[in-house]
Please model this.
Amino acid sequence: MTTASEIQKLEAHYAGCRAFHGELHDHASTGGTSDGHCTLTQWAEDLAKLKMDFAAILDHRQVRHMFLPEWKDGLFIGGTEPGTFISDLRCASNEMHYNMLFTGPEPLMALLEEFPEYAFTGGQEGHFIYPEFTRERFGQLIDAVRAHGGFFVYPHPKQLMQSEDPLDYWFRDETGIEVIYMSYDSQDTVDNYALWTALLARGRRVWACAGGDLHRHPTDRAMTTIYAEAQANSAYLARLRTGDFTCGAAGVRMCLGEAKTGGRCSFAGQTLTVCAGDFHDSLLRSGHAYRLDILNERGAVWSGDIPCTERTYVSLPAQGAAFWRAEICDTTDGLRVAVGNPIWNTDAP
Model:
């Protein structure tokens, strides 16, 4: 099914890396304008109990949480979750939130100063407002997030904005959109997954993300898996910014030529290699069975039952598709528990 050389090529892309499991959308009780219920100390204790490696604390209207003595790089990813209205977007509701993740507070503060709309008061105790944006100006903000080394995610998209046009939810390629929201089995996840696949069908290169939006204690029902060299924010952000991560509690890695998960290349004469594995403990439940699905724009091309305690490798000819991606399903509960990001074909129209 997969040759030793194909496995070696994929593993070479991830040499020195291991799977880190965590949360990409959370809030804590950090004073100021924060609205979480648990302190950072409580978060750290609960993450350890759940065998989770990191949590993104995205408190509202402030940056002070990233300056607290309890803050630890690699355990907590910094950032914020503002809200806005897109003034020239004509739909039933044009309200949205957006997550901006950074390695630390300095690039976020620089971004807030760069956009006077935030009226940022400056410094580690500084606060900012939620400004309204036009679609063009909002796109400029996303570009600036990337320029400052950050990662942009559109959280809970179908839960605020109301539009029948999937393109109303798209602002830039190579950004994240929250697909698994709160839990694998929520109706919100069903709706957001349908939106994401509709955007893929329209040729948009957006990455599936997960987020618990947790304001109380951590849970393990909307996790993210990142293969990184170290438990450090710089290592996480390097993968997030290229789409090389898995929305879910197990790892999905792919390579196609020199392109990895989230990337782009020509598919001509190439072989796709997929690896599924590194399940988080939350999925290691007695009696549960799992299936790997490998898909392109036409649907599933390969499906097979896989173990949850070891890695599974599959290789397929790549040509003839606009993109390839993979998912892991819990067939006992009938739920997607890991959604891998695509590799796109640069030769596709």
